[in-house]
């Protein structure tokens, strides 16, 4: 049964006039007060639908509640896609028209305290529940309003979970644990959607509970299972263009906060200069994620970021060679599986920093191989033997 649009308009108006975020019970109350006679099941369905439209994600609410869904993507009113870990798949969810998609995008942006209109036609923000929001309005988005929602992890993953899921071979686990326990400086690299944030959170959970972790992020996503975490989040400028707090500011502030480990959620700008400086001035065990197609591409990626921030090439490679120890690289196979691919060691050759593979997992069906950097990895780990047992804390 569909309610009369006039009734829905009256209910919306009444709820908005109350000046607070309505609950499903509020919606049901107003429906009854309007004289709507429905069975309890139908009333509950209508209440939940209206609540989703007024305070939730509208037609996307049920998709976002699905524990298997990691991303919800809207490219047109009748083009809604989800990712359940095996790539994007089309779902039978539709909007009335592009105006409905635009209205939802603007309401979600407002919930983040952000502006989204013709003057500012795109937004990148985090919803109160941790969901990452990105939206672009037409005509910038040629086919109509585009909406991308990345759902936060509903539970924390440990190495045992990743082994069970086939995302990392069991024989590699002691080496990864040793990297964290030896307080080596590391980066988690990979392409978009390879699980970098999940891996970084999991690795931070292996840190000694006596360590103080100061996490700097552009949009807060990391929530490691660790008892002593300080989280800092950047801030965009306000409508007047003032008040911005950038990542580089926060990395500098983190140095004054007595960190045992400085963590940058994702390196993608000038903050790389301050992170490399920190790794070269006694801040052991620092870590971050970075976008790269392969571990060997990481130095070039960091170099380009450093050059854009005013650090010359020679200084950038000197800082990398002295401060960075290893790179954990992740990939996403053609079947959608996210998995560990390699553990590489940073070495300096002819004035340039290079990543040399120490452990490699070419395909999910192959065996783990020792690469040319294996000896250097053992050297870096020192007495932290790869026979390390699972952490007991």
From TrEMBL:
GO terms for molecular function: ATP hydrolysis activity. CDD domains: VirB11-like_ATPase. Gene3D superfamilies: 3.30.450.380, P-loop containing nucleotide triphosphate hydrolases (3.40.50.300). Residues 54-333 form the Bacterial type II secretion system protein E domain. Belongs to the GSP E family. PANTHER family: TWITCHING MOTILITY PROTEIN PILT, TYPE IV PILUS RETRACTATION ATPASE PILT. NCBIfam families: heli_sec_ATPase. This is Unannotated protein. It comes from freshwater metagenome.
């Amino acid at each position: 049964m569909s309610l009369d649009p006039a009734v829905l308009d009256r209910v919306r108006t009444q709820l908005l006039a109350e000046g607070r975020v309505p609950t499903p019970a509020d919606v049901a109350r107003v429906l009854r007060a309007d004289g709507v006679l429905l069975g309890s099941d139908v009333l509950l369905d209508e209440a939940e639908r209206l609540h989703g439209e007024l305070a939730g994600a509208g037609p996307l609410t049920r998709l976002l509640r699905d524990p298997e869904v990691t991303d919800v993507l809207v490219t047109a009113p009748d083009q809604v896609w989800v990712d359940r870990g095996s790539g994007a798949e089309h779902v039978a969810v539709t909007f009335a028209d592009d105006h409905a998609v635009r209205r939802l995008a603007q309401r979600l942006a407002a919930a983040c305290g952000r502006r989204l209109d013709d003057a500012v036609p795109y937004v990148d923000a985090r919803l109160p529940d941790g969901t990452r929001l990105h939206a672009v309005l037409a005509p910038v988005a040629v086919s109509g309003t585009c909406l991308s929602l990345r759902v936060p992890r509903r539970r924390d993953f440990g190495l045992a979970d990743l082994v069970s899921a086939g995302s990392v071979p069991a024989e590699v686990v002691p080496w990864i644990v040793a990297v964290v326990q030896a307080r080596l400086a590391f980066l988690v690299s990979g392409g978009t959607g390879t699980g970098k944030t999940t891996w970084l959170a999991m690795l931070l959970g292996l840190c000694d509970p006596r360590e103080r972790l100061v996490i700097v992020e552009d949009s807060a996503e990391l929530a490691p299972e660790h008892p002593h975490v300080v989280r800092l989040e950047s801030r965009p400028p306000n409508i007047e263009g003032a008040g911005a707090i950038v990542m580089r500011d926060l990395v500098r502030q983190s140095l004054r906060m007595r960190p045992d480990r400085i963590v940058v959620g994702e390196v993608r700008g000038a903050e790389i200069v301050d992170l490399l400086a920190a790794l070269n001035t006694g801040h052991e065990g620092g870590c971050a994620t970075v976008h790269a197609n392969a571990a060997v591409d990481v130095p070039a990626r960091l170099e380009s970021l450093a050059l854009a921030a005013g650090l010359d090439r020679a200084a950038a490679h000197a800082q990398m060679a002295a401060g960075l120890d290893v790179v954990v690289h992740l990939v996403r196979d053609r079947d959608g599986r996210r998995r560990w691919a390699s553990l590489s060691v940073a070495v300096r050759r002819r004035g340039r920093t290079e990543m040399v593979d120490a452990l490699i997992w070419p395909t999910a069906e192959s065996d783990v191989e020792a690469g040319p950097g294996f000896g250097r990895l053992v050297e870096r780990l020192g007495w932290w033997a790869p026979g390390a047992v699972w952490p007991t804390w």
